[in-house]
Amino acid sequence: MISDSDNIGIALRMKGVSKKYPGTLAVDSVDFEARVGEVHALMGENGAGKSTLMKILAGSFNDYTGSIFIGQKEVKLHSPSMARAYGIGMIYQELSLARPISIAENLLIGRLPRKYGFWLDRNAMVQQACRLCDRVGLDLDPLQTIEEISHHQSQLVEIAKVLGSNPCVLVMDEPTSALSREDVGRLFGIIRQLKNRGITIIYISHHLPEVFEIADRVTIMRDGQIIDTKPINEVTPPMVVQMMVGQAIDEFYVQRRPNIGETVLDVHNLTRKGFFHNVSFHARKGEILGVAGLTGAGRTEMARSMCGLDPLDSGTIEVAGKQLQQHSYSTAMEHGMLYLSEDRKTDGLFLRLSVKQNMVSAIIDRHTRCGIYSSRHENAKTTELIRKLDIITSSTSADVSNLSGGNQQKVLLGKWIAADPTILVLDEPSRGVDIKAKMKIHKAIIELADNGRAIVLISSDLPELVGLSDRVVVMRDGHLISEMQKDRLSEESVLLAMNGEPG
Questions:
Q1: What is the CATH number of domain 261-336+421-503?
Q2: pLDDT band at 453 (very low <50, low <70, confident <90, very high)
């Protein structure tokens, strides 16, 4: 029995909460509480149960067991609308925006202003949308569609959308995964303002520096259970990592001696007007080439155009000495150049298909004879990749949508490993994954390079970029402005170059 005095200062209490998926107990009798006006970090590996626990709070499931108290009131949260009614706001790692409609319509969906009780009040809609955008530092035309803005701008729209419902408990699931350093600083300012207003923030992140900067307390989950809750000033990053993975991790980036061969990718004066201009670089067999730049520098836009996914106004691309005559992704794939998207759910995976079907989706044509597909190679290849990447799944037939974000990311990487590329362009390959999953992804990237593949690595994670790359090119304002060899690489030197400062 919980007394009223026990609840003083407590914004949220979950007692004995459990959630079961087919074959998996994702959340196992969890007791969790968050105080009024605190930033409470919730950490754990992908699959530890933290996102599932917060989805229970957001009303995503009606079959959980246990008790939930908002303040002193026990509540049932069996739908998202019920959760919102009790003041629960949820910012998901994967965006829930409707891409074909405007920013304003996304921000105010379900509460669009009306005049005469029927007609949409466009002026009021624009004004309200502008106020919400101002709260997160976005200076955009609210009548633009989500399709017209960048991924990091969409992330800020998502945050503004949830803030518009004035929650008393706000859950942020990897809110900085698509944000630049400047945007992260702006978001932390917003979080501090919300905290000062007495709003409780539950902050899910794999980025230890962020957690230690913004959190008051931290709770660690592993295997669906709470391991411990500590004030942030009573723990250190190594202690948190050890609680998350159950063991100490001594060295994150292994030293390797690359065997770099001849040039296999050579691009000259690539230009897409308004996005990037006269970009030239090369990548060699066995090399990990890092591409650095602040948000808006043109890295992703350049990579997508280079691989034929987006338009290209001018420039030439040579793969293994052969110039690509047609600008399309199918042509790039035929020449062995593949692109791993920064947005796995929109552009990378078939969420309604199984792990196995996703893994072999890029090599179906290799096992088709006379229009008939032979699936006899599927199981062996999928099992090998699941073992190599340590993908946690109940079976090869499980839907990818049921996997954690980190395991989905490993499935996406496995899909392109199965395709045996000559050149693999990786755009934020470890975004939103935990430390252990990141290590597996890094190991797979190094193994690909050691086996003679050229890797083009786009990453906003400076330790990752510096730790993995043999060479780094730096983009700024759509131009390639610098190239740095391994012996010059450091987080500080790359950050200075990204900001246009001499190293």
A1: 3.40.50.300
A2: very high
